[in-house]
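pinned: reference chain
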Amino acid sequence: METGLQLVRTRAALSALAKGWHDLGRTIALVPTMGALHEGHLALVHLARERAAHVVVSIFVNPTQFGPGEDLQSYPRDLQGDVDKLRAAGVDAVYAPPVEEIYPAGFATTVHVEGPATAGLEDAFRPGHFDGVATVVAKLFAQSACDIAVFGQKDYQQLQVIRRMSADLDLPVHVIGAPTIRETDGLAMSSRNAYLSPQERKTAPALHRALQAAASAIRAGRSPQRACAEAIKGLKMTGFATDYLQARQAASLAPLTADYQGPIRLLAAARLGRTRLIDNIAV
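pinned: its structure tokens
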């Protein structure tokens, strides 16, 4: 029986590995990533190890989810460092395919998503982003033959999009959302935090504090609209340019209505210098 981490580069190699595990009656968990791994990613791995016999982590900077002017070329990459971290975390396989393995010559089929993907949040600022995400995730699900997939709640809209896609397309994958992992000062861990200057890094936790203040105000009876407006005003005073900070229905991400009684999610995206940060919390 194979031991230790295996680095695989092709669909065929990954499919053979998955078939061998399934033939033995073992379950497979997939953790999709774009690399530049931090403790937040490793928390997803730990959860995956608790839920399945084998864990596959994909590392693929997916070009179809980046828009014009976004950081595709400069996105941090450190495959060897990532592999070392995943080996220490007990991962069974790292799938790190080249672009042509995911999008071979003649590739012409994509997944188009609506519902949570057209909620007017990330999609309003990154047109086509979630179609790119859904397409690559659907391919990774098929290639890995995973039974479980683990995604972080930091990218909450993405998580809801993947859940909706999996349900709508009858994909036999149980999608798990893992809690956001934060630095000690509350900043959500993200590969893009590396872009922050030292002064911006000191300011960045204000985004989480603004969400916490808005959530507390809503629980105390203030209208969500007013609570969010006050949070946006406070962020502007600290140096953020806010793309959005909104209260939404937690499952569908639809706007709140007067008769809505279900759980609420606060979601925000804001720019600090050249770095765009996203975060969200439950109310």
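why pinned: The CA atoms of residues 245 and 268 lie 4 Å apart. The chain has a mean pLDDT of 96.
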